[in-house]
């Protein structure tokens, strides 16, 4: 049912894979999803030649992986982040040892992460 992630089923997909024992309600779920926005913002700052806050990005990523699990968090990140951020995202995910060679089921497509370049500057 949720092998493919789309705009229509994104929240259902995220909710299905959400596992936070300290969650007290829907607000906690949305707060955890907001970490994707924070990562986007930090990537955008880096892209605009400002500083790279690598530890803060890593903390946001670890939080997402802790509450969604490895495969769902990876799929969610590649779904929600623009393709221009994928090299930077790949760099962090390789460092965390959570990046598969292929991510399946994003808008009925598969992403071959081997073909994505690593950001050499980071």
TrEMBL record:
Name the UniProt record assigns to this protein: Uncharacterized protein
InterPro entries (alphabetical): DUF7207 (IPR055631)
């Amino acid at each position: 049912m949720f092998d493919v992630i789309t705009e229509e089923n994104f929240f259902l997909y995220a909710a299905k894979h959400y596992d936070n024992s300290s969650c007290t309600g829907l607000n906690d779920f949305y707060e955890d999803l907001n970490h994707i926005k924070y990562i986007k913002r930090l990537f955008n700052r880096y892209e605009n030649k400002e500083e790279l806050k690598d530890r803060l990005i890593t903390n946001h990523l670890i939080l997402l992986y802790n509450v969604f699990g490895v495969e769902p968090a990876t799929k969610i990140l590649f779904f929600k982040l623009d393709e221009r951020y994928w090299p930077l995202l790949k760099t962090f995910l390789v460092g965390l040892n959570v990046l598969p060679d292929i991510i399946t089921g994003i808008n009925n497509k598969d992403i071959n992460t081997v073909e994505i370049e690593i950001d050499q500057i980071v």
